[in-house]
Amino acid sequence: MAEVISMADIEASAARLGIDLSSINLDSIQLPPGEDFGIQSGDDGDLYQDDPLEFEGGFGNIIVVDNLPVVPPEKFEKLEGVIRKIYSQIGTIREGGIWMPVSPDTQKTLGYCFIEYNTAQEAELAREKTNGYKLDKSHIFAVNVLDDFEKYMKVPEEWKASEIKPYMPGENLQQWLTDEKARDQFVIRAGSNTEVFWNDPRQLMPELVHQRQYWTESFVQWSPLGTYLATVHRQGAAVWGGASTFNRLMRFAHPQVRQIDFSPSEKYIITYSSHEPSNPRDSHRIVINIFDVRTGKLMRDFKGNVDEFATGGSGGVSGISWPVFRWGGGREDKYFARIGKNVIAVYETETFTLVDKKSMKVDNVVDFSWSPTDPILALFVPEQGGGNQPARVSLVQIPGKEELRQKNLFSVSDCKVYWQNNGEYLAVKVDRYTKTKKSTYTGFELFRIKERDIPIEVLELDNKNDKIIAFAWEPKGHRFAVIHGDGPRPDISFYSMRTSQNTGRVSKLMTLKSKQANALYWSPAGRYILLAGLKGFNGQLEFYNVDELETMATGEHFMATDIEWDPTGRYVATAVTSVHEMENGFHIWSFNGKLLYRISRDHFYQFLWRPRPPSLLTAEKEEEIAKNLKKYSKKYEAEDQDVSMQLNEQDRKKRKMLQDQWNEWVAKWKQWHEEERQFRIQLRDGEASDEEEEYEAKEVEVEEVLDVSEEIVADQD
Amino acid sequence: MRPILMKGHERPLTFLRYNREGDLLFSCAKDHTPNVWFADNGERLGTYRGHNGAVWCCDVSRDSMRLITASADQTVKLWNVQDGVQLYSFNFDSPAKSVDFSVGDKLVVVTTDPFMGLPSTIQVKRIARDPNEQTTESVLTIKGPVGRINRAVWGPLNKTIISAGEDTVIRVWDTETGKLLKEADKEIGHQKTITSLSKSADGSHFLTGSSDKSAKLWDARTLTLLKTYVTERPVNACAISPLLDHVVIGGGQEAVHVTTTDRRAGKFEAKFFHKNLQEEIGGVKGHFGPINALAFNPDGRSFSSGGEDGYVRLHHFDPDYFSIRM
């Protein structure tokens, strides 16, 4: 803090300097921006320290061009014209936005000038494009944004060893995994609130962990192992986490960030923003940054025209498909890749450069995907030359870039690739043209990645003209489910990659006929699957056990839009998000289809279970536990019992309290009512009572003669 | 038991009222003609013709001789229940929204809508025993609340008037001076328009329904909030059971917001709550539009609901309704 200067001190120093204080208008003194002479103003000091992002100085749109030729006044205009020509190509220069100072002694220019653009983006672009621009041999431009000057000026002349801070043990970011009741967390976003809850199925309600208004400006996202909760703001993204509550752990500056994506083991975070062109000459630019999550260091940035990042290189404004960069190589975060025109660019994270310093050339490639566990890429190249060159699916090993397996496919209209989450199997859904080319039918090519030479098997449905509505692999398993059919009620078939005798053949397990389902949600632990009828089916749910091939329960969450299993496969959340105006909220179900509790919230945007890292138990240990489940479950059953007893007790007490309170009110009202009795009778002109027994129901029959007429009836005999 | 469907109105229902004995049911609708029905079998007894606008509300005197109706045609009319003859017509400068007889039936409280620059009002009229001596002067006029006052009723012993409406605040006024006595706390009160207000049989507490998807139970003397019942839909109507500790609230998505063809989407249900535990007991479906009116028979053994669909549904409770254990 600056020392406090009293008025007397000021007067003394003024007298010393021979200044008449009364002749100075103190209000007219303007300090240079960013300079406060060490005087901190109380109201913004905190903000400056806490939020430097928001308060960057206001000269972002001005650049300083250095190393200009020094010219006499005669040539001033010519030089200005040259500069204007160069810089007006990049963006709109403000009126009078070029200022080239001249030396007061010689009237020559000083070799630098200032250029003011309309926007900071244009200035940044100009800096990028013309820094190092060669006007001639001896004049190579050095361009900087005016804002940066201050930063450069502050660099001390002498190098000082930076202070090494003593090691502070960090919080246990995985504290939530040690919950005594082994509960899971989830985050919801409703209205302006973002809330994190424990899912407490025993209490049949969620328990609030942390809640914050305006926590994020667009959405929230868990990191893949659940350590961090990421929020998105105008200035960048932030990650939150911690042992007891949610603290901000790191920020990643990226103005106008739109999308974020974590690497699979959450070492890195990719942020993405797209900037609409501000004038017709500009192009639609996108910026992608890759940060290290723990240190916040920017590892690599990609800036460029939107066309360069569009999938398949086809161009167009909407050509970007997120994520642009896809992470591969399993849990090590070793490689990431993106697709370009005729190339797949694979980067590695050691140096953040291309593997082998060059992209992989694949003519006409339109899609690729990584194996979830291994550094293997699956590529799809569509048919070329009107069918002369067949379509191709190939598997490529990284970093060697050698092709492991390739399959040519004929008369293909489209392909879609589904990896099983252990990377053991790969299913390629192939849509082929019929002979007339008027319609398509679908088949599957099934790859066994882990077997020698990667055998491929072709699978066609019983009725191969059926449309495929959904496909899903059983997590960690060998089965998959397909919804197929053309009618309003499609069929669902289950297949296994093994048969009972032969492990190398695919076999059908079961077909469920005419179901109201259009989406498949396997439990993350496998074995159970939720067959859901969203959208047109209004939220029909069927909980199905694939081991026993039987339906465990059916249910309905009317209008449900989203379904998510918790990471352990014990509970399922179904939600109606704000795509519908009504019914917003979520339901929690047990894995076998019992509705546990419902929460409704208006303007419900997101429901996300907090992911868990993979289990630390070995496969053998897991198997052993599964075998001796009875032994282990006893303890939990006892706990459940206790909790439910306690709940009953609590409930009973609460009810009793409510009833007592109510009785008190009623007694009071009765007393009042009694006291007011006389007055009431008075008001009713002496009509004696409030009692209702005063009247009696009398049934009165009234006969009315409407018409009398006499008729002579002929005697008939 | 199967409900009795009573189709006597051509436009959405607005209000339902039983007489003291519970043998007659009066219904008001946006068509101009209130109806009277046998509350037991749903047979229509007659109509009251004369209004020239939607009829918003009605009340019947303790002796079931006089009916009073409030209408958008800017009149409040007094009728002879028995023969449907119009006895008197009070003229106002703006549509009348609600009416309520005082204890003793000598006074009536009327609310009028804000209209053509006029503010909304609460007015008290004197009802003469002999219709020929009836005068039009207001005994008391209260102005103040902003927006429509959807309902005003008499407090205990006619000493107070309780009003509620679009400005979401429940107010208690002194009937002698017209002064504001109490105002419900904004924090704990409704967040959106209060659409309905219904007193308990003895007038000691009352229930309000609001577009904020909740109904609240209040002490009529102290204006303390007793209970809150939360539903999934805007509440248009509510009623307190005179027999059991139940309340029924009804409503539904506004017609303009119903986007799907599925009838369930609107939740046009009359929902029963335990008055004390605030827990939902059950629901009665059937209307295919929002429920605008609800009333319990004074014996508590049947109730009726009126919907935007133009139907009145009369429900006699099954025996097991009376044996619900909470």
From TrEMBL, chain A:
<comment type="similarity">
    <text>Belongs to the eIF-3 subunit B family.</text>
</comment>
<dbReference type="GO" id="GO:0003723">
    <property type="term" value="F:RNA binding"/>
</dbReference>
<dbReference type="Pfam" id="PF00076">
    <property type="entry name" value="RRM_1"/>
</dbReference>
<dbReference type="GO" id="GO:0005852">
    <property type="term" value="C:eukaryotic translation initiation factor 3 complex"/>
</dbReference>
<keyword id="KW-0963">Cytoplasm</keyword>
<comment type="function">
    <text>RNA-binding component of the eukaryotic translation initiation factor 3 (eIF-3) complex, which is involved in protein synthesis of a specialized repertoire of mRNAs and, together with other initiation factors, stimulates binding of mRNA and methionyl-tRNAi to the 40S ribosome. The eIF-3 complex specifically targets and initiates translation of a subset of mRNAs involved in cell proliferation.</text>
</comment>
<dbReference type="GO" id="GO:0001732">
    <property type="term" value="P:formation of cytoplasmic translation initiation complex"/>
</dbReference>
<keyword id="KW-0694">RNA-binding</keyword>
<dbReference type="InterPro" id="IPR000504">
    <property type="entry name" value="RRM_dom"/>
</dbReference>
<feature type="domain" description="RRM">
    <location>
        <begin position="61"/>
        <end position="148"/>
    </location>
</feature>
<comment type="function">
    <text>Component of the eukaryotic translation initiation factor 3 (eIF-3) complex, which is involved in protein synthesis and, together with other initiation factors, stimulates binding of mRNA and methionyl-tRNAi to the 40S ribosome.</text>
</comment>
<dbReference type="GO" id="GO:0031369">
    <property type="term" value="F:translation initiation factor binding"/>
</dbReference>
<dbReference type="InterPro" id="IPR034363">
    <property type="entry name" value="eIF3B_RRM"/>
</dbReference>
<dbReference type="InterPro" id="IPR013979">
    <property type="entry name" value="TIF_beta_prop-like"/>
</dbReference>
<keyword id="KW-0648">Protein biosynthesis</keyword>
<dbReference type="GO" id="GO:0016282">
    <property type="term" value="C:eukaryotic 43S preinitiation complex"/>
</dbReference>
<dbReference type="GO" id="GO:0033290">
    <property type="term" value="C:eukaryotic 48S preinitiation complex"/>
</dbReference>
<dbReference type="InterPro" id="IPR011400">
    <property type="entry name" value="EIF3B"/>
</dbReference>
<dbReference type="GO" id="GO:0003743">
    <property type="term" value="F:translation initiation factor activity"/>
</dbReference>
<dbReference type="Pfam" id="PF08662">
    <property type="entry name" value="eIF2A"/>
</dbReference>
<keyword id="KW-0396">Initiation factor</keyword>
<protein>
    <recommendedName>
        <fullName>Eukaryotic translation initiation factor 3 subunit B</fullName>
    </recommendedName>
</protein>
TrEMBL record, chain B:
<feature type="repeat" description="WD">
    <location>
        <begin position="187"/>
        <end position="228"/>
    </location>
</feature>
<feature type="repeat" description="WD">
    <location>
        <begin position="48"/>
        <end position="89"/>
    </location>
</feature>
<comment type="similarity">
    <text>Belongs to the eIF-3 subunit I family.</text>
</comment>
<dbReference type="GO" id="GO:0003723">
    <property type="term" value="F:RNA binding"/>
</dbReference>
<keyword id="KW-0396">Initiation factor</keyword>
<dbReference type="InterPro" id="IPR001680">
    <property type="entry name" value="WD40_rpt"/>
</dbReference>
<dbReference type="InterPro" id="IPR019775">
    <property type="entry name" value="WD40_repeat_CS"/>
</dbReference>
<dbReference type="InterPro" id="IPR027525">
    <property type="entry name" value="eIF3i"/>
</dbReference>
<dbReference type="Pfam" id="PF24805">
    <property type="entry name" value="EIF3I"/>
</dbReference>
<feature type="repeat" description="WD">
    <location>
        <begin position="6"/>
        <end position="47"/>
    </location>
</feature>
<dbReference type="GO" id="GO:0071541">
    <property type="term" value="C:eukaryotic translation initiation factor 3 complex, eIF3m"/>
</dbReference>
<comment type="function">
    <text>Component of the eukaryotic translation initiation factor 3 (eIF-3) complex, which is involved in protein synthesis of a specialized repertoire of mRNAs and, together with other initiation factors, stimulates binding of mRNA and methionyl-tRNAi to the 40S ribosome. The eIF-3 complex specifically targets and initiates translation of a subset of mRNAs involved in cell proliferation.</text>
</comment>
<dbReference type="GO" id="GO:0033290">
    <property type="term" value="C:eukaryotic 48S preinitiation complex"/>
</dbReference>
<feature type="repeat" description="WD">
    <location>
        <begin position="142"/>
        <end position="183"/>
    </location>
</feature>
<keyword id="KW-0853">WD repeat</keyword>
<dbReference type="GO" id="GO:0003743">
    <property type="term" value="F:translation initiation factor activity"/>
</dbReference>
<keyword id="KW-0963">Cytoplasm</keyword>
<feature type="repeat" description="WD">
    <location>
        <begin position="284"/>
        <end position="314"/>
    </location>
</feature>
<protein>
    <recommendedName>
        <fullName>Eukaryotic translation initiation factor 3 subunit I</fullName>
    </recommendedName>
</protein>
<comment type="subunit">
    <text>Component of the eukaryotic translation initiation factor 3 (eIF-3) complex.</text>
</comment>
<keyword id="KW-0677">Repeat</keyword>
<keyword id="KW-0648">Protein biosynthesis</keyword>
